[in-house]
Specification:
This protein has about 240 residues and is an alpha+beta fold. Helix content is about 40%, strand content about 20%. The protein is flat and about 80 Å long. It comes from Commensalibacter communis.
Length: about 240
Amino acid sequence: MVVSVNGQDRWTCPYCNYLNSLGDNCKIISGVFDEHTNSFTGNPSDIIYNKHQDQLNLKTAFIVCLNPECREYIFMFSLSLHNSSDFIHKWDSLPEGLNTAKIFPDYIPKAILEDYKEACLIKDKSPKASATLSRRCLQGIIRDFWKVKPDTLYKEINQIKDKIGSDLYDAIDAIRQIWNIGAHMEKDINVIIDVDPNEAQILIELIEMLIEEWYIKDHERKERLARITAIGVEKKALKGSK
């Protein structure tokens, strides 16, 4: 996503979260990759008109991350009204769903990441299906990270009640009821309780928060402690050799 910070265009890489500075050298180039900005933005196509005679522009964008340890790239299309910065629609080609799903480390269980990514991709098209996937994703996270005895989500949440903060427990338990709407049909099938895209997004953001606070912070903590332990072993060996 490209944003303007203090008048300068910046783009956060969806793969590594590196904040790229596109700067003043980011120009619209027709069919040529700019090695200085590591980006390509195709010129707007010839102006076309829809049935309301609105002028439309179709643009393409190709950007490579400037982070030397990443160098991944994205490719997208966008449709907008002529002379307007507001998008009517955007299509993400590479990576799929780059504006919705975050890129998480591969030490996160594959099944959890797959449910999370799919929940992001279908959030707008089918919020209830997205909520159902997020519910399953939450259950998978609790079972895997906390090693709880598999049961109903309600009972599994209660098994970790004393291990997490009360505010997080209350939020998870409250949102669980929204997930149940997507996961289970009401007794009266004529009662339709819908889940809108904004609510589905809230569920997705909870999943992202849990992955970051539980998996990633735990992984980083273990890495720091391992480095400290390694230093201690090294110093002890040096002391013993003297």
